Amino acid sequence: MQTPSHKELLDAGCHFGHMKRKWNPKMSPYIFMERKGIHVIDLNRTIEGLETAGKALRQMAKSGKKIMFVGTKKQAREIIAAAAESVGMPYVTDRWLGGMMTNFSTIRQSIRKMQKIQSMLNDGSLDNITKKERLTMTRTHTKLDRVFGGMAQLNRLPNALLILDINHEHLAVAEATRLGVKTIGIVDTNSDPNKVDFAIPANDDASKSIKIIADYLVSAIQEGLDERNQGKDEKAKTEETSA
Q1: What is the DSSP string of 37-81?
Q2: Average model confidence (pLDDT) for the chain?
Q3: What superfamily in CATH does domain 1-98+157-219 come from?
Q4: Strands of 38-41's sheet in order across
Q5: Domain locations in the chain?
Q6: Chain-centre distance for alpha carbon 126
Q7: Percentage of the chain with pLDDT > 70?
Q8: Closest of 74, 63, 50, 22 to residue 190, by C-alpha
Q9: pLDDT at 39 exceeding the cut of 90
Q10: DSSP type of residue 203
């Protein structure tokens, strides 16, 4: 995984923070300067955060842990969903429902209901019901899929949350903290970096900034997955040889 250069981060607008009046004083160590009333993020600290978070995610993936991607802001939804799907990880991009982790058993019931309807739609079980009933079932599935589709294969709580905007996703941060789930978050100048285990200081509003960071973290996860698969292959070969 190659860390983005200063120029690449600059071109993506990762250095743009919020207006000074909106800043969180705890972000002071990550701010390079103020320009025309807007804080500029220190990209050296961004790179440090990326590399630290990348190493942690790589190790998690290598250990077989599940990392849930969370990004419900409009400009990030497609980026986050594509990033998570590329490495087979769960994600939430529509909205974070209160209790999504702290009341996971109830959430699983909704996911099973969604999967049951999908199965019935696919195998023709609903062919004999009225058009109105079928439409109702289809709408129910669409609604459930929008909220829970990215979590369909998640059978247990994730081991970590990768969060786009920790202020916007404050419910996710709070639930993860309560349950002791590791958190990796992009923190803008209006955020409290101490609320997550691994803080990546960067612009969390611009799609280009979101994508360059997501791409790097996904590459770290993919490396971990590749190492895990390689280890499994080597173990299998060893067992075959000793048999």
Answers
A1: TEEEE-HHHHHHHHHHHHHHHHHHHHTT--EEEE--STTTHHHHH
A2: 93
A3: Glucose-6-phosphate isomerase like protein; domain 1 (3.40.50.10490)
A4: 16-19, 38-41, 31-35
A5: 1-98+157-219, 102-156
A6: 35
A7: 98
A8: 22
A9: yes
A10: -
pLDDT in tens, 94-125: 999 999 999 999 999 999 999 998 888 888 77
Instruction: Single out the residue of 10, 9, 41, 11 nearest to residue 23, CA to CA.
Output: 41
Report the 10 Å Cβ neighbour count for 78: 13
Q: Are 111 and 152 in contact (CB under 8 A)?
A: yes
- Is residue 70 within 8 A of residue 80, CB to CB? The reply is yes
- Closest listed residue to residue 211, CA positions, set 6, 2, 7, 8: 8
Query: Beta strand 160-163 with 91-92: parallel, antiparallel or unpaired?
Result: unpaired
102-156 carries CATH number 1.10.3470: no
